[in-house]
Amino acid sequence: MRWINIALGVAVAGIICFFAVRELLIDPMYFFELFLGGLTRGSIYALIALGYTMVYGIIQLINFAHGEIYMIGAMTALIVASVLGMWGWNTAVIVILAFVFAIVYSCAYGFTVEKIAYKPLRNAPRLSALISAIGMSLFLQNYVMLAQTPEYLPFKSLIPDFKFWEPFAHIITSVEITIIVTTVIVMILLGILIKFTRIGKAMRATAQDKVMSALLGINVNNVISATFVVGSATAAIGGVLIACHVGQINFFIGFLAGLKAFIAAVLGGIGSIPGAVLGSLVLGISESYFTGYFYSEYEDVFAFTILVIILIFRPSGILGRHDAQKV
Amino acid sequence: MNKPILNVKNLTMSFGGLKALDDVSISIEKGQIAALIGPNGAGKTTFFNCITGIYEPTKGVVEITPPGKNTQSLRGLKPNYVTERGIARTFQNIRLFHGMTVLENVMIGRHCRLSSGIIKAMLQPPSQKNEEQKAVTDSYEILEKIGLEKYVNDMAVNLPYGAQRRLEIARALATDPFLLLLDEPAAGMNPQETKELDDLILWLRDNENLTILLIEHDMKLVMSLSDWIHVVDYGKKIAEGTPEDIKANSDVIKAYLGDESDDA
Amino acid sequence: MAIKNQIKQSLIIAFWFMILTFPIMVIKVNTIRHTIDFRWANLVGVGIVTFFASMTWNYFLRRNEDQKKKEMDDDIPLIHRLLQNDRFRRPFLGVVAAFFLAYPFVFPMYHTSIMISALVYVMLGLGLNIVVGLAGLLDLGYVAFYAVGAYAYALLNLHFGLSFWVVLPISALLGTFFGVMLGYPVLRLRGDYLAIVTLGFGEIIRIVLENWDSFSNGPRGIGDIPAPTFFGHQFNQENTMVYIYFIVIGLVLMTIFFVNRLENSKIGRAWIALRDDEIACQAMGIDKFKTKLTAFALGATWAAMGGVVFAAKTSYINPMSFTIWESITILCVVVIGGMGSAIGVIAGALVLILLPEYLRAVSEYRMLVFGALQVIVMVFKPDGLIKSVRKVYTFNVQEKAIHEQTNT
Ligand SMILES: Nc1ncnc2c1ncn2[C@@H]1O[C@H](COP(=O)(O)OP(=O)(O)O)[C@@H](O)[C@H]1O
Ligand SMILES: [Mg+2]
Hints:
The structure holds three protein chains of three kinds. Chain A is built from twelve helices and two strands; from the N terminus they run H-H-H-H-H-E-H-H-H-H-E-H-H-H.
């Protein structure tokens, strides 16, 4: 069985490599553009996937409302930027404030959602918490739709076309390179937070064993809140960046993006932060090639197919640990 | 001489770097009440898990010779097939089905001895009805034997602790085993309950033709019940023998006094 | 003193929500006319609503906790207690039967049509209840099998002229087949992975239907699907609705009948055991994979039959009827109604489907309310509105004793 798996894996990898090399020789520029497009896409997925994976790691809940947090981040940035724009403020200030407000508000929403919809269900059946999350997602979508508008809103990019980037702009736009660079920075900061700070250590301990952590004097409720806040912050950054990239938003953007990011998190091994990043990049880049060379309308089918294939061969995702359950 | 009913040779189980079991060989004779003892974390539960197919051992031989049947290997068998072959167990941390009544918990044990499938369940021909009725009465009789019949329709979670432990035994009996593995059956019981358990285990051996292997920390119970005792420590088997041998064994005393002073 | 603290706390919460909702509730940018509306009234509204919501929320949360301490898990829901009471059961069932029999003749067609939808959801809910409620498998792609049934009828009728009554059993088999095919690779996955993968399959089927024009006619869908006939006789529109209504009633009764039998059979118990504790379940000699697969396939069977009825009723289907939200709605029917409880699922379907339909008056808000309701029900009744109750067996102890005496 194991040898069959390995042989299959090698065969599939060989076929993929063959086609990749062929395409690379035919049109290297296009190949490279698709790669960068995939990298951008993967970066955005990663920013959202982090929230899923962290929350899952700590309370084993698929936070269905996470996509909505990301949407609210983008929406807040849009509102703040438009208001300040009309008041005639300086562009740089607007950009900074839009980002700050987006992040702060997303964090506040993430925090509040956890307190209302998940905390009372800490000891309930897991399915109940999931339904609560779905309800929250539905509520937030409709809340934004009713309070604002069901229409798509144009989103004027907050990121200017950098002068110094002009020579490269035909390969990858300023927005795209900003997305990639920002993601890298966020990942590094997050890595530092998780590895070296007190709260980061508490998060890791709580993810390992909640009861034990509580006995050791960690305030589990605070750690969970902090996890939601951090996850929401990265989602907000992702939300604003993708809104800049796509140029329009509405109340529904969170759902599909959230779904994709969740797939990426599972692909990488849910609960694992490097896994979420790796899974996002794998998904983003392979999707980019798939839509570039094959059928763009089957993009989502492709994403799910990749997920199923990887889960069949690695049931805990690429970097997920596969422990035998202790009995 | 008859072949041992359970024959385990050179069993090794590693979790990453940790060897929870290291080259353990144990054999159990028919009709024995054997005990497996050792300090916490010695690998006793892991031993049960390896035999019953819940873990797949890293190395070693697990063979059974059911009464009147040929010797067969259990290595690599899924837990349900192990149970079908006639080995039943209880769990150290009680694992009852909390969404079901006491009777239904026992009926689950009958599952692998019933034959009706889905179609029969939907159409309920007489053969299915009879089988179902028989399962109900069989299960009730088992409850009577174990002394739990007064709880028959209660939800399993609402039982007192001692009764839950006994229900685990009832459930295991329902699978018609020839070998019963009990994982700390007396844990958390008061002296009265422990006494009753003592009687029950003896009764099971004598009247139900069972061979019993039990893990237990209550030394009084172990010494009074067991025909033969196996001792493990840090995954290794350090001694075996009659209760008298074990009491006198200096390695065993060291293992227990070394890191276990709070255990009875 | 306590009340004072609560008011203070609720005031803080109200204040928090006023800040939280400020950008979205208050500011509205008109990008065309380049003006900003500040809707201050909304701010006041949010404050007042959240203050009172917080007060009631806390009150009920505390009451819930007190109750939990007092009673154990063995409280039987009122409806079950009533149904166990012989004096009550007959008249109650009589009234229910009379209501459903008279319904299409008393109410206009519009209401009959809505009731048909609700009853289809009862079927779907009972089917999914096998998968989620009994076997504990989180299936977020249930709609895939519903689509299989609906498209099976539409296409088999279009190409081969097969009638409703012929397709109904065929689609049931197709549902089972698809259930096994999809279940086989994915049922080995752990719980949450299963959820996301089944969600994926649901989406895949929808996307394929949307894009594979030559097979499914793409997003335009398939129209002119004939209504069922009565021994070859075609009713007029109004009577057709009544006819379909009774077909659905029949199917629902059949579903209840079979599901009830399954639930209290060998296989049903195995499902519940699997849900409660996979390891103990295997140790009791139950084949985990086979048991999961039967639940998954049986659930799919009912979904496919529901799909046929749906296609026959609407006479037009397109892929938009089979989105993930449909799966989620059915899941909510099961979980909010009460997992594992047939009565709960029926109640859940009727409430969740009829309520939004009749809330159309305030239609803008209905999904908002729906979402909020899901959260509220789960927080205050995590086991659903009506908890499941297990069968009670009776034993004639005396007779048994006599029996034993004669033996010895
Ligand atoms: N699934 C598992 N993964 C990792 N370590 C395990 C697992 N199961 C048991 N162990 C380890 O194996 C050792 C033996 O455990 P166990 O058999 O439960 O001991 P005991 O003798 O108290 O029953 C312990 O150190 C335990 O932590
Ligand atoms: Mg143990």
